[in-house]
Design a protein that fits this description.
CATH class of one domain: Mainly Alpha
Keywords: Calcium, Disulfide bond, Endoplasmic reticulum, Glycosidase, Hydrolase, Membrane, Metal-binding, Signal-anchor, Transmembrane, Transmembrane helix
Bound molecules: 1-deoxymannojirimycin
Number of strands: 20
InterPro entries: 6hp_glycosidase-like_sf, Glyco_hydro_47, Glycosyl_Hydrolase_47, Seven-hairpin_glycosidases
Membrane topology: Single-pass type II membrane protein
Number of helices: 23
CATH topology of one domain: Glycosyltransferase
Shape: globular
Largest sheet: 3 strands, antiparallel
Organism: Amazona guildingii
Radius of gyration: 37 Å
GO molecular function: calcium ion binding; mannosyl-oligosaccharide 1,2-alpha-mannosidase activity
Strand order of the largest sheet: 5-6-7
Length: 674
């Protein structure tokens, strides 16, 4: 190869002159400035050759060192770089999404904040956290912006709350502390899972509930839920047109009936409307509560019924909406019910005059019903927590403590009456899980859950009672061998079961979900099948109020027998309620299908064309079910609410680890463990 240096030193030779010289080389040869790449390459090479061996080695070593450093720093910076570049290209390419949803890997600059982004003063939001997607609260949208009180259990607009965070933290701590509790041979397995299959992940794979909520995409309302909304609207239409502000609709006579004169249906239905997202209806009802609901009335109310429907309904609506109007009303009725506890035994009277502040038992006796005095606790305890006034909780806790110590129980099963003077059970020897005793059992478990699973006496009484049920009241029918809960009267078993007993499978499942023995879940599965059969084996597909089971197989006889006096249906919720729990905890779609059948039969036999639904007198006569002309408030408060929840696949739509339902289906928060 020709070298410019050699050319400069040696005399010009002909063969070099003419052919190979480039213009640049010619210029060099002529002594002009040359900065061409080739010239520089050749000049560097000449310099390199002139260096000593040592100098060359040092330079080579330096190059090698720099190259190694370069490789190391590239590999550590590569990932974030990739994220940033791929993120920005995603942003350009993708459709607009729910704001903030893609910010799990925050971009280089935070997303611009809206002017109202810092509405509430919610201290729980860490400034270091990336922006979160806005939480979508169900219910009338314009009511969602009401800032909740900070000291109560409410979701913030960011889908979390201090209390929820504390709950999660406490839950974590409790899980690490708790081992297996044992109660008289019944093993309580804290970690036993009854979650639906879709959520049965390993604990370590699960996001915390707060994180889960943050990432939550709203679950769309499905066709069956739409059918519930349609049913609700139809019922509401009748109530609004013919019974507005009164206790119950009489849909056939297009009028109303009064029990307490306190707008019972309207109050019972408030939180259902919220959950179903019925904005207009809710707002209209709220106006009525604000302007027309007055408790200063000379009227006798039943303590239990007004507690579970009115106090419970107002408290849960307050929790869901964050609207203090409902808390104020709850305080008012709570205070007015307190005279009921002024009895020699502190076991409350059944009736209170909320205007006069006086209370009394029924005219014919000084007894109260056991279920009634032991199923007002969730509501009064919550009222104390919200108001900071312990008197409500003190009054109802005393009742539970007293009943805990009483004799006259049969392996945890309680009689139906208790005397307000002596404080003793009366009419001993009759045991049922139906009318007059039912919700005693339900509230044992639910108070234990509400209070953070610390009140051991409640759990003890509950576990003992379920053992009592197994020992004395469980039987199997023929021919289908359905497990049912009968009654015991002075040692004689009766194969009679009220529809009311169908709360039990749901309660058992709730207990199992909360760590109680897996036996309870098995029993729940058997009993809900029976409750479903109480509908399926009847001509209209609707359950009567009471059934008698056949204990012996007889040709041509089904399991379920119905007496003429018992063949009415009051639109009761218990079976649907239990179906809801069973579906939530197992994910088995058959429970939804059973509920769907029931809804269709309500539509077929109890729907009144001009608006509303009616109780019927004869579930055995599809051609004339004999409408009774009454829509009970619990049809809107409970039955349709549980239907809607049953058909939902959104476990956060009233999450059962955060809320406990009172016996009228009003969800109340589970307290933060202390
Ligand atoms: C409701 O008022 C409550 O569910 C109560 O516990 C029982 N009776 C009715 C519904 O059947």
């Amino acid at each position: 190869m020709y070298s410019a240096a050699a050319a400069a030193a040696s005399p010009p030779r002909r063969d070099f002159i003419s052919v190979t010289l480039s213009p640049e080389e010619a210029a060099v040869g002529a002594g002009g400035y040359n900065n061409s790449k080739a010239w520089r390459r050749r000049s560097c090479w000449r310099k390199w050759k002139q260096l000593s061996r040592l100098q060359r080695s040092v330079i080579l070593f330096l190059f090698a060192f720099l190259a190694v450093c370069g490789v190391i720093s590239y590999t550590s910076m590569g990932e974030p770089w990739k994220n940033i570049t791929s993120k920005s290209s995603d942003d350009q390419d993708s459709e607009p999404e729910i704001p903030g949803l893609k910010l799990a890997n925050p971009a280089v600059l935070p997303a611009p904040q809206k002017a109202d982004a810092n509405l509430g003063d919610y201290p729980e939001l860490s400034p270091q956290k990336p922006p979160k997607p806005p939480h979508i609260r169900r219910g009338p949208p314009n009511l969602q912006i009401k800032p909740p009180r900070k000291d109560v259990w409410l979701k913030t607009r960011h889908g979390t709350s201090r209390v929820v965070e504390e709950l999660v933290q406490a839950d974590k701590e409790e899980k690490t502390e708790k081992s297996v509790i044992s109660w008289r041979g019944a093993v309580i397995e804290p970690d036993q899972s009854t979650e639906p299959p879709s959520s049965q992940k390993k604990e370590s794979e699960k996001p915390s509930s707060v994180e889960a909520e943050d990432q939550k995409v709203p679950v769309p309302i499905n066709d069956r839920q739409m059918a519930v909304i349609e049913a609700f609207r139809h019922a509401w239409k009748g109530y609004k047109e013919f019974a507005w502000g009164h206790d119950e609709l009489k849909p056939l006579s297009k009028s109303y009936s009064e029990w307490f004169g306190l707008g019972l249906t309207l109050i019972d239905a408030l939180d259902t409307m919220w959950i179903l997202g019925l904005k207009e209806e809710f707002e209209e009802a709220r106006k009525w509560v604000a302007n027309n609901l007055v408790f200063d009335k000379n009227v006798d109310v039943n303590l239990f019924e007004s507690t579970i429907r009115i106090l419970g309904g107002l408290l849960s609506t307050y929790h869901l909406s964050g609207d203090s109007l409902f808390l104020e009303k709850a305080k008012d009725i709570g205070n007015r019910l307190m005279p009921a506890f002024r009895t020699p035994s502190k076991i409350p009277y059944s009736d209170v005059n909320i205007g006069r502040g006086t209370a009394h038992p029924p005219r014919w006796t000084s007894d109260s019903t056991v279920a009634e005095v032991t199923s007002i606790q969730l509501e009064f305890r919550e009222l104390s927590r919200l108001t900071g006034d312990p008197k409500f909780q003190k009054a109802v806790d005393e009742v539970m403590k007293h009943v805990h110590t009483l004799s006259g129980k049969n392996d945890g099963l309680v009689p139906m009456f208790i005397n307000t003077n002596s404080g003793q059970f009366t009419h001993l020897g009759v045991y049922t899980l139906g009318a007059r005793a039912d919700s005693y059992y339900e509230y044992l478990l639910k108070q234990w859950i509400q209070g953070g699973k610390k009140e051991n006496e409640l759990l003890e009484d509950y576990m003992r009672a379920i053992e009592g049920v197994k020992q004395h009241l469980l039987q199997r029918s023929q021919p289908k061998k359905l497990t049912f809960v009968g009654e015991l009267a002075h040692g004689h078993f009766s194969a009679k079961m009220d529809h009311l007993v169908c709360f039990l499978p749901g309660t058992l499942a709730l207990g199992a979900h909360n760590g109680l023995t897996a036996d309870h879940m098995k029993l729940a599965e058997a009993l809900i099948e029976t409750c479903y059969q109480m509908y399926a084996q009847v001509e209209t597909g609707l359950s009567p109020e009471i059934v008698h089971f056949n204990l012996h197989a007889q040709k041509g006889h089904k399991d379920v027998e119905i007496k003429p006096a018992d063949r009415h249906n009051l639109l009761r919720p218990e079976t649907v309620e239990s179906l809801f729990y069973m579906y939530r905890f197992t994910g088995d779609k058959k429970y939804q299908d059973w509920g769907w059948e029931i809804l269709q039969n309500f539509n077929k036999y109890t729907r009144v064309p001009t608006g509303g639904y009616t109780s019927i007198n004869n579930v055995q006569n599809p051609s004339n079910p004999e409408p009774r002309d009454k829509m009970e408030s619990f049809f809107l408060g409970e039955t349709l609410k549980y239907m809607f929840l049953l058909f939902s696949d959104d476990i956060d739509l009233i999450n059962l680890d955060k809320y406990v339902f009172n016996t009228e289906a009003h969800p109340l928060p589970i307290w933060v463990p202390a």
